[in-house]
Design brief:
Elements: E1 2-6, E2 26-28, E3 31-32, E4 56-60, H1 63-73, H2 79-86, H3 93-102, E5 109-111, H4 122-126, H5 128-138, E6 143-147, H6 156-165, E7 168-173, H7 179-185, H8 192-204, E8 208-213, H9 224-236, E9 242-244, H10 253-265, H11 267-276, H12 295-306, H13 322-341, H14 346-360, H15 366-372, H16 375-379, H17 383-395, H18 399-417
Parallel strand pairs: 1-4, 2-5, 5-6, 6-7, 7-8, 8-9
Antiparallel strand pairs: 3-4
Helix pairs in contact: 1-5, 5-6, 9-12, 10-11, 12-18, 13-14, 13-18
The structure holds iron/sulfur cluster (SF4).
Length: about 425
Amino acid sequence: MQYECIKAKSLLSKPHVADSWFHMNRSLNAYRGCEHGCVYCDGNSEYYHVDNFSSHIRIKENAAQVLQRELKKLGFTSRSELESETLWSFLDDEDAKRIAEKVPQNLVIGACGGVSDGFQPAEREHKVTLRILETLLDYGLPVFILTKSALVLEYLDLLKEIHDRAFANVAFTITCADDEVQKVFEPNAATTSERYAALKEIRNAGLYGGVMATPIIPTIGDNLENMTELVKKTKLANGEFIQFGGMTLKPGRQKDYFMRVIKRRYLANYDAIERIYENNNTYGQPIWTRLPVHVMTMGYHICREFNLRDRSVRHKTPHEHESNNLVLGVLLDIVFRMGMHLGISRNRIKPYWELAAQIERGADELGELKQRGDLKQYLMIDDSMVKTIDEILKTGTCQVLKNLEARIGTMAETELDEEMRVSPDEYS
Ligand code: SF4
């Protein structure tokens, strides 16, 4: 393994607007390259311009300083800066509140897990992620973490402090219920059992957390047995949700390496997988009609059986109004169901996504606007959208979402009736 300390020039990604997958607004990577060496890793592709992605790890040793600089530029003020300016402890409650409100806090940063795990083995020595988390605590910002490592538990006290000030949401990527299968595809990451044990500890500590079951590998992981096991284990670990997703395979290095491993370890599945990805789509998307099952639909069905959310949760950021968070959560569920489950056209999704983006950027309290009858004028929306928001504020959901979920439920039942699993032989 080669390690190289580098100086990052910038850290935060461009804004993610109304992100219905992870509910984060910006992401960052503490490292470039990842020792976990997952066979399906996107980072292997030429798209990211990182050679030897799993064996040459670039350590962004100045990441915390760059993050501080970028947060300041975005208008955020750290607690330590405020304290030094104002003798915080002598302020009365009103003044303290006024100053705290000066700090904008409606930003959720996805620290780690974009395209390099922030809790990979290099973190033990270099502690770049630790310093990033300390910075987020100082700025009172929430954090979303996605990892395949139990090392995250070493920072549990710090994460609890972040959770007390804002929130800490720790999701584990888990795609293979069986440790043996998982070791083939994620050789250097924590085992599936270790990740579930870590999730349980995270939840026992009172933090938010769940499972991102993605990528589910077609013909290997997309069967009822594996997916049901994942749902059961998530439930046992008290995860808030499990969200399933499929696999992309970009032509070039990523696909070549993945297919070499399939040939060696899962020869019987080789032809089927090759046919699913034979379009060599630039983004690695499969030929949808050749997929044995729609994993999100099957995930929806299994989760319903076990009474577990099949969608990530949108948590309220510190200064966000309850009612705004409620409406945003439902709107983003609509966007996700329409786009990811049902493949509905962008034009039909757009009004919901745009409204979500508008609210996320900071709208007045929707509950009060509704009471004053100002929703339509303030948000510049039509009567049907006003009705939808009204319903969400009253009941926590709306007919639009219920109809979409009913369609997904019917699809799941039909597919299950037709035996969702298709044998790899059918592709050879
Ligand atoms: S943990 Fe994520 S970034 Fe690291 S090798 Fe695996 S898929 Fe790639």
